[in-house]
Design goal:
Elements lengths: L5 H9 L12 H17 L6 E5 L5 H8 L3 E6 L2 H14 L3 E5 L2 H7 L4 E7 L8 H11 E12 L3 H14 L16 H10 L3 E11 L4 E5 L5 E7 L3
Parallel strand pairs: 1-2, 1-4, 2-3, 4-5
Antiparallel strand pairs: 5-8, 6-7, 6-8
Helix pairs in contact: 2-3, 5-6, 6-8
């Protein structure tokens, strides 16, 4: 069975045509993309390296990594966002290989094939996030980097990420996130270690609703990212 929730795939598929609208439902992704891209690029070499973006959606991060010189494969199980990603890459002249395939299936097909694996804003949308972590660990070469981002599970994240972002500020469509699927850093750290990866660094991402500005910090209480490496 695929490690995917049909309702989640349908939800993002229905919004696929809005993926590259910087003022649409995916505006937050456009705003945070330069921050996460710079953070990834500061730790891992992208030019002339093989990168796999797991859960690539419409290709915002995948395309930006390709523009930095990486050879990028973007994978997703939601067909409509993938078609949007392919069309946008053609229009922008950026070379990205997009495939409709699960992370677990690609891990069986191409183990130890990537210098860098990214999996951003995806773990909280699948039934078994630990399985995706294991697949990412299998995909990366020894010495390579794996990056995850997700949402912490606590009262503050419920208030900020669901009540604030979806209902008060209306930054995201209602129902984008399900609180029970949020992941504590301790849980993600355990899955990472069990998959044979080493945690290198956690980084929080904060947002000021008055200035509409995002920035990276050490506060992982709501949105956070983690950089991992596979031992050589």
């Amino acid at each position: 069975m695929l490690n995917a929730d049909p309702q989640e795939l349908s939800k993002f598929g229905d919004l696929a045509h809005r993926w590259w609208d910087p003022d649409g439902e995916f505006r937050p992704l456009h705003q945070i993309n330069p921050l996460r891209l710079d953070w990834i690029a500061a730790l891992a070499a992208l030019p002339n390296h093989d990168v796999i973006d797991v859960g690539c959606g419409g290709g915002i991060l995948a395309e930006s990594m390709a523009q930095r010189g990486a050879r990028v494969t973007g994978i997703d199980l939601s067909v409509k966002p993938l078609k949007v990603a392919q069309l946008h890459a053609m229009e922008s002249g950026v070379a990205v290989d997009y495939r409709e395939i699960a992370a677990e299936a690609l891990a069986e097909e191409r183990p130890s094939s990537a210098d860098v694996v990214t999996c951003m804003e995806m773990l909280e949308h699948v039934p078994d996030p630990g399985s995706v972590v294991r697949a990412c660990a299998t995909l990366v070469k020894p010495g390579g980097w794996v990056f995850f981002s997700t949402l912490n599970r606590n009262p503050k994240s419920f208030l900020f990420a669901i009540v604030g972002a979806e209902y008060v500020l209306k930054m995201l469509p209602k129902g984008t996130h399900e609180y029970a699927k949020f992941i504590r850093p301790s849980e993600l750290s355990r899955w990472v270690r069990e998959a044979g990866l080493e945690v290198h660094e956690f980084k929080g991402m904060e947002f000021n609703p008055l200035t509409k500005r995002y920035w990276l910090s050490g506060d992982t209480s709501v949105n956070y990212m983690v950089a991992c490496r596979r031992p050589r």
